[in-house]
Amino acid sequence: MKTKTIIDVRTPYEFMGGNVAGSINIPLQEIAERIAEIKSLQQTVVLCCASGVRSQQAASFLQSQGINCSNGGSWFDVDAKLQ
């Protein structure tokens, strides 16, 4: 059973170029409008992007909404940690 859900906040184009297996693509600009979907996830959320900047913005916003999440930084780093 998965204990974490990985949300990649890059654009769909960036996501298609490579991503963490099993991750969900929710671009940064869609985070606020998809808050209910994110709140419904049963696992801790880890956010990632290309460098960690956008995922930090998303993590800060989601934490302010009471969502248990963290910034995983670059998707390369998250992917490597899961290997």
Give short descriptive properties of this protein.
alpha/beta; Oxidized Rhodanese, domain 1; 4 helices; 36% helix
Blueprint of the fold:
Blueprint: E1 4-8, H1 12-16, E2 24-25, H2 35-39, E3 44-49, H3 53-64, E4 69-74, H4 75-82
Parallel strand pairs: 1-2, 1-3, 3-4
Structural write-up:
By secondary structure, this protein is an alpha/beta fold. It has one domain: 3-Layer(aba) Sandwich (Oxidized Rhodanese, domain 1), CATH 3.40.250. Helices cover 36% and strands 23% of the residues. It contains 4 helices and 4 strands. It has helices at 12-16, 35-39, 53-64, 75-82, and strands at 4-8, 24-25, 44-49, 69-74. A 4-stranded parallel sheet has the order 2-1-3-4. α3 links the parallel β3 and β4 (69-74). The chain is globular, with a radius of gyration of 11 Å. The chain starts with a strand and ends with a helix. The model has no long low-confidence stretch (mean pLDDT 94).
Summarize the structure.
The chain is of the alpha/beta class and 83 residues long. 36% of the residues lie in helices and 23% in strands.
Number of domains: 1
User: Main β-sheet, in a few words?
Assistant: 4 strands, parallel
Rg to the nearest angstrom? 11 Å
Treating each run of at least 4 consecutive H or I residues as one helix, how many helices?
Answer: 4
End-to-end span in angstroms? 16 Å
Shape: globular
Q: What is the fourth-level CATH superfamily?
A: Rhodanese-like domain
Give the strand order of the largest sheet, numbering strands 1, 2, ... along the chain. 2-1-3-4
Q: Could you give the order of the helices and strands?
A: EHEHEHEH
Which structural category do the helix and sheet elements fall into?
A: alpha/beta
Strand content: 15-25%
CATH topology: Oxidized Rhodanese, domain 1
Helix proportion range: 25-40%
pLDDT under 50 segments (min length 5)? none
What is the CATH-assigned architecture? 3-Layer(aba) Sandwich
CATH class: Alpha Beta
Give average pLDDT, whole number: 94
